[in-house]
Specification:
The chain is an alpha/beta fold. A six-stranded mixed β-sheet has the order 3-2-1-4-10-5, with helices on both faces. Helix 1 runs parallel beside helix 2. The chain is globular and about 45 Å long. About 35% of the residues are buried.
């Protein structure tokens, strides 16, 4: 699980210290998704605190070659095979040294200040193990995204439900979830986690 040594220079901030946030995007044969969504992540992630890493799950398309050509600031963590979602992310998390990992789906677009907002929250709430942003649909930005919305809860029967979605119906965003709330689960589509809780 060696990281591409040509990318290692991007892991430190201007002061020469390790950046506290590792944004990790898991990829498997996802060149088209990366070309479509990665530009917003690169543009809107604050390089003073964050490094962007694509953990490649043994892709046999030209994802890695495309990344090297079009996204030279993005670090590449190559795996020798497809380890799937859970093990792929577990291996990626084990390979970084940042204080926080920010897991992000390859089909998610970022908005200005997205990583700073999550980082500031975690710094101000050391008792929080994880947090997530509000997730809106890319195609219908006035509604919540099905995969996670604003996080969720688990009822007394162990059934998970979501803020911003009732069964298969996604709510319209009218600011009803703009306030901070304690949740039982956060979505892996965009979730910042303190590295300490993995250990």
């Amino acid at each position: 699980m060696a990281m591409d040594t040509q990318k290692m220079e991007n892991t430190r901030n201007d002061a020469g210290t390790m950046k506290p946030v590792a944004i990790i995007i898991l990829n498997w044969n996802g060149r088209e998704l990366l070309e479509r969504f990665l530009p917003s992540v690169v543009e809107y992630s604050d390089t003073r605190i964050s490094r962007v890493i694509v953990a490649d799950n043994g892709s046999d398309d030209d994802s890695v070659e495309m990344l090297k050509e079009k996204f030279p600031t993005v670090e590449i963590l190559p795996f020798d095979t497809n380890y799937g979602f859970a093990e792929g992310y577990n291996r990626a998390v084990a390979a970084v040294e940042s204080e926080y990992t920010l897991l992000l789906n390859s089909d998610a677009a970022a908005t200005p200040g997205w990583d700073v907002t999550l980082y500031d929250f975690m710094e101000e709430h050391p008792d929080a193990g994880a947090c997530q942003p509000k997730l809106l649909s890319y195609d219908h930005p006035d509604t919540f995204e099905y995969a996670g919305g604003c996080g969720g809860y688990i009822d007394c029967n162990g059934y998970p439900y979501c803020r911003g979605r009732i069964f298969s119906t996604c709510e319209t965003d009218s600011g009803q979830y703009d306030s901070v709330a304690a949740i039982h689960w956060a979505t892996g589509a965009a979730m910042m986690v303190s590295l300490s809780i993995y250990l």
